[in-house]
Design goal:
Number of domains: 3
Low-confidence stretches: 196-229, 248-269
CATH topology of the largest domain: Rossmann fold
Strand content: 15-25%
CATH superfamily of the largest domain: Flavodoxin domain
Oligomer: single chain
Mean pLDDT: 78
Order of helices and strands: EHEHEEHEHEHHHHHHEEEEHHEH
Radius of gyration: 27 Å
Number of helices: 13
């Protein structure tokens, strides 16, 4: 059984969700469940504007092949955070329609205010509309993390939540989705028309819905639906018509928008390809095998794709940043081609060092840890 774990909370706004994630990962690992880790807080997933994202392709493939999804989400003002909303917008793409179908989801949400349940309901609806459904769920605040010692009440609560989710997956639980018949649509529309305020003319949608209920006759402007259109409203329309009569867009105060299609743009045009590939390696971090390891690995890459950066391993999380860091635990020095081979899994860092393809300064033992904690084979073009 395989799950996709999606961490959708920025570092300064996730409370102690990383601690919760560690407990969930360990509990499910004991039950024999493996996870793909996706951390949207350190990704290059852009806001969706119709342009296909390479990183989203990786995420969607993981979701499609998973038996279930675990969401770690931060919320504010009764709404799920921007990171999860961005992911939902990408999933709404026609090309990705269906990847969430019948996925059973576990949601753990952090909220700094009292509107967490409202945010959970909003996310629940979005997940439902994507064809999936939310099974076990939990909304927590900052106080929840103060009592997460092993065996504590909150620790056991998370364990029980995971166990219930595991049973739901094994039993392939689903939910019933009621359909809307043509008769029901017609009745709903009639009720809506009858309950509209008398001074407002109802909107008549000319959509496939009308065909669905057999209403193919043309709509007459003299029908009873617009009998309540008042003389005052007509005078307002006449006055507006006179105001703008003979005036161009500039004179009337309206701005003409340029709707010409724009050239597609890259999600992160300022980052070289090798830097992006190094960053994407963080999505294949094996958090369950980290064992609380905390260390910093600096990389100094030379050649045509030269850059300097560092990988920070912090227990259940792995972070990549461009730039230098003081006092790293180990520094790897290599040319771009050799580093590319390492992060794609063509050769281990330890072997590359042993045969003289890279140089290393600092704690050499960390090379073997580095080789073990990432699924390099999946970090391909």
């Amino acid at each position: 059984m395989k799950l996709t774990s999606i961490f959708a909370a920025m570092p300064l706004n996730h409370g102690g969700l990383l601690e919760v994630k560690k407990i969930v990962t360990e509990t499910l690992a004991e039950l024999g469940i493996t996870q793909d880790d996706v951390n949207l807080g350190y990704s290059s997933l852009p806001y969706y504007d119709g342009i296909k994202s390479g990183y989203m392709s990786t995420i969607s493939e993981s979701i499609k092949n998973a038996d279930g999804i675990i969401f770690y989400v931060s919320a504010s003002f009764g709404l799920p955070g921007a990171l999860i909303q961005t992911l939902i917008e990408h999933v709404s793409s026609v090309k990705l329609t269906g990847i969430m179908q019948k996925k059973n989801c576990l949601v753990l949400m952090h909220s700094n205010d009292s509107n967490g349940q409202a945010a959970m309901s909003a996310l629940d609806l979005a997940v439902y509309n994507m064809g999936a459904f939310v099974g076990p769920r939990l909304v927590v605040d900052q106080g929840f993390y103060e009592n997460l010692e092993e065996g504590s009440k909150n620790y056991v609560l998370i364990e029980r939540l995971c166990e219930d989710y595991y049973r739901a997956l094994r039993q392939q639980r689903e939910i019933y989705r009621p359909g809307v018949t043509a008769t029901a649509v017609s009745e709903i529309r009639q009720i809506a028309v009858q309950t509209l305020p008398q001074q407002i003319a109802p909107v008549i949608p000319i959509t496939s819905e009308i065909k669905a209920v057999g209403e193919t006759a043309p709509i007459s402007l003299s029908s009873g639906l617009i009998d309540n259109f008042t003389e005052a409203q007509q005078r307002d329309i006449d006055d507006l018509a006179k105001l703008f009569q003979g005036k161009g867009p500039a004179e009337s105060g309206f701005k003409v928008l340029n709707l010409a299609p724009q050239a597609p743009r890259s999600a992160t045009p300022d980052l070289p390809k090798l830097v992006k590939k190094t960053a994407s390696l963080m999505h294949y971090y094996k958090a369950g095998q980290a064992g609380g390891l905390k260390s910093t690995i600096s990389v100094d890459i030379n050649g045509k794709d030269a850059f300097t950066g560092y990988i920070k391993l912090d227990g259940p999380d792995a972070i990549f940043e461009v730039g230098r860091i003081d006092n790293p635990d180990v520094t790897i020095i290599a040319d771009g081609d050799k580093w590319s081979d390492i992060i794609k899994g063509k050769i281990s860092a330890q072997k590359a060092f042993m045969i003289g393809q890279i140089k290393v300064r600092g704690n050499f033992v960390l090379l073997s840890k580095f080789d073990q904690l990432f699924d390099f084979a999946r970090n391909i073009d």
